[in-house]
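Q: What does the predicted 3D structure of DUF4148 domain-containing protein look like?
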Amino acid sequence: MRIRAIFTAIMIGTVVCLTSSGASAQDAISASSPASTKQAQKQAQKQARKQARAKNKAEIKQLQKNGFDPADGEAGYPQNIQRAERRSQASGAGAASAPAK
């Protein structure tokens, strides 16, 4: 996200410089290299993957805290994780409805 903001600021600066020197905005847009755009997209995708991975890890940690053990294998798989999800939702709902002290 930070890289996208930097890239946008650079593009705006390029447009301002080129338009103040008499060039059109279209020239400023075409002046940006495709490589930098591709690199910005790649960075955005990488950041999205990192966020998704962090979210998944947090969810798994929460399930493990509520009794899910991935090492159990297929023995009690559906019931095991469903029970942990119910506990997680119940503890989340209880925490959300508890009055602040």
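A (community wiki): The structure tokens above were generated from the sequence. The helical segments are 2-20, 25-31, 34-65, 77-97. Confidence is low (pLDDT under 50) at residues 14-19, 96-101.
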